[in-house]
């Protein structure tokens, strides 16, 4: 798997290419989970301009969902793949055996807000299935090849893939 990832680093900064390779390591996933609150705070302070190491090669957003139990806003920093006027995201949860809370929140209430590059966009989430899921997953793997590693680590859990379309 790692050798296939090298192919995706052409035209990237050396640092971004290395980060993408490290994404396959278990310790990197643990570090990513630990740093998520810092990433979320940094994203809020910069209005979404700096998230996930601030690398242009790793498109990042803040996704704000409505908590399915609390009804309160819940914000999570995520990598995304652009898809026309929308965004593709995957509930990888770093390969953990349970679904991420934000994905379950989107299933319960598909209306959300993304903040990308300082711009807030209301969106409606659609849980992708079949050929559409595979297409979006291909876009996501081009951004972050480690999603394949996370899929394997997740065991029997199917990673949820969503398309977030502007809801204007």
From TrEMBL:
Q: Which reaction does it catalyse?
A: oxidized coenzyme F420-(gamma-L-Glu)(n) + a quinol + H(+) = reduced coenzyme F420-(gamma-L-Glu)(n) + a quinone
InterPro entries according to UniProt: F420H2_quin_Rdtase, Split_barrel_FMN-bd
Give the source's domain of life in one word. Answer: Bacteria
Q: Which PANTHER family match?
A: F420H(2)-DEPENDENT QUINONE REDUCTASE RV1261C (PTHR39428)
Its signal peptide is: none
* Protein name as annotated: Nitroreductase family deazaflavin-dependent oxidoreductase
Give the similarity note.
Belongs to the F420H(2)-dependent quinone reductase family.
Any Pfam family matching the protein: F420H2_quin_red
């Amino acid at each position: 798997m790692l050798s296939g990832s090298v192919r995706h680093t052409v035209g990237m900064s050396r640092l971004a290419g290395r980060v993408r390779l490290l994404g396959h390591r278990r310790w990197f996933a643990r570090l990513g989970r630990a740093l998520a609150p810092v990433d979320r705070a940094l994203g809020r302070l910069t209005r979404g301009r700096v998230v996930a190491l601030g690398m242009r090669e790793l498109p990042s957003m803040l996704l704000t969902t409505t908590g399915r139990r609390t009804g309160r806003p819940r914000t999570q920093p995520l990598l995304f793949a652009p898809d026309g006027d929308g965004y593709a995201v995957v509930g990888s949860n770093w390969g953990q055996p349970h679904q991420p809370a934000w994905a379950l929140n989107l299933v319960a209430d598909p209306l959300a807000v993304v903040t990308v590059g300082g711009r807030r966009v209301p969106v409606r989430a659609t849980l992708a299935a079949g050929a559409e899921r595979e297409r979006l997953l291909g876009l996501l793997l081009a951004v972050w090849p480690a999603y394949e590693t996370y899929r394997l680590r997740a065991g029997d859990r199917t990673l949820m893939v969503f398309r977030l379309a502007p809801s204007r």
